[in-house]
Please model this.
Amino acid sequence: MAEKLQAIKGMNDILPASIARKDKLPDAALWAWFEDVVRRELSAYGYHYILTPLVEPTALFVRGLGEVTDIVEKEMYSWRDAMNGDALTLRPEATAGIVRAMVEHNALYNGPLRLWTMGPMFRHERPQKGRYRQFHQLDVEALGFAGPDVDAEMILLVRRLWQGLGLVVGEHVRLELNSLGQPAERAAHRAALITYFEAHAAELDAEAQRRLHSNPLRILDSKNAAMQPLIEAAPKLMDFLGDATLAHFKAVTACLDATGLAYRVNPRLVRGMDYYNLTVFEWVTDRLGSQGTVCGGGRYDGLFEQLGGKPAPAVGFGLGIERLLLLIQELALPVPVVAPQVYAVIAEPALLPQAVATIESLRKAGLVVRMHAGGGSLKSQFRQAGASGARHALIFGADEAARGEVAVKDLRDATATQITRPLTDPAAWAHTLLTA
Ligand code: ATP
Ligand code: MG
Model:
């Protein structure tokens, strides 16, 4: 026998509910339900669906995300195309590709755009619960909008998603906010940080020393416990922010306040990519251990220009679908199950063609019918009819067929008497099976 092959470490099969293991990643039915909620809410907020390639030129991410970021330094799947030598990368995030596409198609020519996409991202990280090498994101971007209005709307859109999914804000997820200011303000803060950390050079770990002159802001993001007192006492960006930046931030929080959404201003919130400015936010949970950020985003007004486009303000977020669904699974939130309305039991194999014709007519009339396939005893067919969650069973039996009829059994009411319906023109009685 040939050797069995396995999926790549950190890249998961998302399996149908019937075969998925409860201690593993959530099943595909949960994903489909999440996608339904997302489609509904995003279109209600006026966002349009977009798809961009999974593979992009490596330069896009190096320029877009910043050279001294975790992603570009050590997490990207990059290679040379053996055919033509092109430097290629599997996308580690969605924003850079979307901005590349908008610049390439001069898409903001007619005004701003609200866009969303959903799909796999790739990062070479150490796989663990909530952290994978292929993971999936919902990604939402508002392009060409400068104001705090759209920042606030986007945060509130995430709250709508939580509500649609049954998550309680404050209990299951909470919002953290910060302002990263404008480039000049960040530069002043950066200079002050370098001076401060230089004065404490002996207390820096190796990673911090390396970042001191390339990206000192990322030192603030260090997870090294020994460094925390030093980081706590470091100069705060808030003290370097000018009036316009503070006014923008205040306008965002005023909108959130008006809708009763609670948040915590976290001056330590920096985010992993270089492209952010002004508003940044994260939605976090403490039910997933250290992988607690389910959604993160913010403003990136400089990215269009950095990627060769006309300057255009923009704001967006990425939501980690695995983490979110793990949270929903962990909390055992009720998830709607999609059951057929009717299960067709075919008692007599010779009746199959007649049964198929009737079933197709019922489907055309709008009924969700699951046809028993593969034969088997009546008993086993009824067992599967019960397991399907269908309200009714249609029974195609020899006696009924001889009278030109099909039997209908109420699967949820054992006392209900079995009725029959004519095999001709099923559309005429299909609606009688729709009542709950
Ligand atoms: P973290 O700090 O956990 O590494 P991040 O800041 O790198 O997250 P972003 O790049 O902002 O994450 O991506 C947005 C969201 O995508 C995260 O909040 C998280 O929910 C999810 N995410 C990021 N990396 C992974 C991964 N390797 N596996 C699963 N989900 C991920
Ligand atoms: Mg990361």
